Q: What sequence folds into this?
């Protein structure tokens, strides 16, 4: 690696992969609970498993983003990190806080956890994805601020590239919008309205800036295409992202008590949200086709292309499927939402983090790329996980369409649980695809331990 | 992507576009805040409803159920459960959990007091009276 302080990224990446594994294991538990309802009950009720599943996702992606930033910013700014020690300290703070929170979910009833972590002082818990105790939320803010301080100080003393600027805007936005998690009005409509300022403005807003910056960075490295070209693409893509995504928030305001004009604003703008994802796919393939060098890390290139395609399918196509208000009227809050959520998170965010890890980790371990043997294994894991996720999404979509028909659209609608029984076969198939995903993940982890002949040392 | 269209033009469009649409979003939000009081049933936001919302939150009900379609998709929609089942059924149902029926999805017993049960029901009643543009499509949620 070019700058010794980039090494702080390594523990972040390792933690990300570890927590990712935990997320997938809890996903499998939940998948089984969908069909064997009393599996692990009462030890791990579904709501606890889900909280662990989604919170681990958020935390491992944050670890991935932070690791990526610590790796990228010194190289982009051409200077050592402002304080590598602070970065390592924050790693341990975040890891311990995250682990303590997950253990809290698993070992203590949620109401008790709320009582002993200050929820009576400021009620922020018990809302989807924002279940973290107040102390954890404050911890996230502290870690984020120290992280941003460290990187901003680094940037101020070094070269300012567009990629690092876009990354920093994304990361500052991430921290800023998280502050809305502390706002929980008694009025349910307002609660929901501003809850989306964290959730939507993260994943369909500022996180896409981070995604774009990570992808652009890896593409410059593996293709050798001129930075000016790649950064121009990056600006075009993120312009379309925010132009469509900000007003696109309206697609969450259809049925929660907000004014009905949001059905128009939300439908029109969110129908345009696939465009930046499509542009990202075209961008990735275009850059790889115009490559000026043959980078020895084939796996990283594969992840980069995969991110483009899968984020377009998951976030773009599957998002569009149910985003128009007249369609969403029937599909809102069904397995179709779950299908979209799975492929979008995997295709956009899980894959881009795995992409930067794939590129950076060999360099952090002192080589330009892993051995042929290790890369072949990694590419196998890419296909297994990606194909498994396609199947998970297809099965959940099938379950969702049936659910909508039976419970919402038919002239003789049946109750929720009766409809669930009818679609159980698709939950079994989804669980099977989930096992395939886990096998892919285990092979991915194994690829780090496979040696074989190493390529030339990193510059 | 070549010729006269430069990176700095792309950057300026990014900043301009983002600021414009962020301001438009804020304006729409400002307007929404003027309209929402007519739809959000705030007149019935009693201390009991507020306490009930807290019961809902600290027991992580959203981890299995949806409320106005948002949450987890493991258990029934509860935004309209007050209209579907009525107050007494809701209370009896919560108290009788878990059913213990083999292989069926299980809801934990949260050991709620009579007061907490009443507050929760009040919260669900308030939720069911929010103007949700006629969603869900039918009583099954």
A:
């Amino acid at each position: 690696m070019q700058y010794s302080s980039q090494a702080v990224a390594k523990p972040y990446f390792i933690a990300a992969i570890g927590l990712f594994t935990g997320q997938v294991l809890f996903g499998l538990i939940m998948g089984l609970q969908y069909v064997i309802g009393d599996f692990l009950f009462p030890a791990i009720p579904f709501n606890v498993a889900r909280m662990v599943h989604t919170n681990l996702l958020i935390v491992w992606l944050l670890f991935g983003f932070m690791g990526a930033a610590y790796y990228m910013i010194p190289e982009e700014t051409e200077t050592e990190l402002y304080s590598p020690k602070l970065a390592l300290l924050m790693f341990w703070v975040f890891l311990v806080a995250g682990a303590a929170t997950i253990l809290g979910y698993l070992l203590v009833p949620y109401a008790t956890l709320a009582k002993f972590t200050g929820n009576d002082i400021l009620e922020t818990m018990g809302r989807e994805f924002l279940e973290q105790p107040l102390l954890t939320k404050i911890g996230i803010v502290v870690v984020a601020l120290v992280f941003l301080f460290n990187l901003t100080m680094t940037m101020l003393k070094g070269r300012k590239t567009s990629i690092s600027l876009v990354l920093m805007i994304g990361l500052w936005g991430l921290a800023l919008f998280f502050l809305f998690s502390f706002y929980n009005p008694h009025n349910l409509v307002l609660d929901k309205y501003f809850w989306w300022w964290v959730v939507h403005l993260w994943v369909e807003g500022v996180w896409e800036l981070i995604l774009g910056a990570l992808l652009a960075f890896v593409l410059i490295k593996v293709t050798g295409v001129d930075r000016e070209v790649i950064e121009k693409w990056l600006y075009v893509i993120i312009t379309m992202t925010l132009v469509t995504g900000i007003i696109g928030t309206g697609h969450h305001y259809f049925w929660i008590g907000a004014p009905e004009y949001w059905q128009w604003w939300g439908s029109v703008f969110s129908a345009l949200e696939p465009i930046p994802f499509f542009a990202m796919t075209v961008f990735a393939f275009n850059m790889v086709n115009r490559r000026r060098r043959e980078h020895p890390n084939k796996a990283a290139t594969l992840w980069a292309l995969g991110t483009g395609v899968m984020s377009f399918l998951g976030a773009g196509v599957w998002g569009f499927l149910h985003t128009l208000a007249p369609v969403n009227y029937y599909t809102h809050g069904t397995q179709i939402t779950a299908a979209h959520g799975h492929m979008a998170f995997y295709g956009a965010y899980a894959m881009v983090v795995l992409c930067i890890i794939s590129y950076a980790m060999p360099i952090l371990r002192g080589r330009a790329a892993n051995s042929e043997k290790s890369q072949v294994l990694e590419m196998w894991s890419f296909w297994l996980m990606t194909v498994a996720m396609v199947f998970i999404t297809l099965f959940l979509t099938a379950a969702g369409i049936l659910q909508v028909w039976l419970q919402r659209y038919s002239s003789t609608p049946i109750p929720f649980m009766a409809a669930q029984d009818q679609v159980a076969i698709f939950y079994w198939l989804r669980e099977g695809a989930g096992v395939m995903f886990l096998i892919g993940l285990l092979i991915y982890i194994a690829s780090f331990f496979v040696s074989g002949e190493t390529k030339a040392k990193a510059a | 992507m070549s010729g006269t269209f430069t990176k700095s033009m792309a950057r300026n469009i990014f900043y301009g576009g983002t600021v414009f649409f962020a301001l438009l979003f804020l304006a729409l939000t400002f307007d929404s805040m003027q309209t929402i009081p007519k739809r959000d049933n705030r007149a019935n936001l009693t201390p009991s409803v507020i306490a009930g919302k807290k019961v809902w939150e600290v027991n992580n009900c959203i981890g299995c159920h949806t409320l106005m379609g948002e949450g987890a998709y493991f258990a029934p929609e509860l935004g309209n459960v007050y209209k579907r089942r009525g107050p007494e059924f809701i209370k009896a149902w919560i108290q009788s959990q878990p059913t213990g029926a083999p292989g069926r999805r299980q809801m934990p017993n949260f050991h709620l007091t009579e007061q907490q049960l009443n507050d929760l029901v009040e919260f669900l009643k308030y939720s069911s009276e929010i103007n949700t543009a006629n969603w869900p499509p039918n009583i099954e949620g």
In short: The first strand of chain B starts at residue 66 and ends at 67. The beta strands of chain B are 66-67, 70-71. The radius of gyration of chain B is 22 Å.
